[in-house]
Amino acid sequence: GDSVTQMEGPVTLSEEACLTINCTYTATGYPSLFWYVQYPGEGLQLLLKATKADDKGSNKGFEATYRKETTSFHLEKGSVQVSDSAVYFCALSEGSGGYQKVTFGTGTKLQVIP
Amino acid sequence: DGGITQSPKYLFRKEGQNVTLSCEQNLNHDAMYWYRQDPGQGLRLIYYSQIVNDFQKGDIAEGYSVSREKKESFPLTVTSAQKNPTAFYLCASSISPTSNYEQYFGPGTRLTVT
Description:
By secondary structure, chain A is an all-beta fold.
């Protein structure tokens, strides 16, 4: 079945440091890929997405490129802020029997210190 | 403002009692989902619905029930048969149950059963 593997956290960075959170996936077809962010005590919010190979999703300084050859969708940001502290989930979505089956990674907690 | 509301935010119940979690959306989305989130395990799908009056079991449906009598509402009942009901429950919706569309999440309900 489909699966998503993302790096274990927590990841602790100083403000203005570079961020990379690795995400790799296995899927039977051609999935869409997503990064969601969850702030403490809240639901998930879409951060960015890519629906086909070589697409780059970007939002709020974050970006990720859909790499079919390496089955990866790593999340990057050049300069993190304290307000970026949250849990980040990589997810894939694939059609299965007529419905959208979404598989989530286990989440990576990011803590940015001033 | 369009969005998904879940109520209440915190819910406490005694073991052996059924409890119903509310989920309402005003986004005019066809598809709705219920997930359970436990620490370190990501999100697991409980039930989903692609259209009014139709719903399907997800990966961990045992001990749960749902209804979809209106497009905007998808309540989840946690029954006394659920062996470990204490968790954070997230409701989500998407425009269409196809793989390209992101899911929109509610703020979640934290259920504690003692």
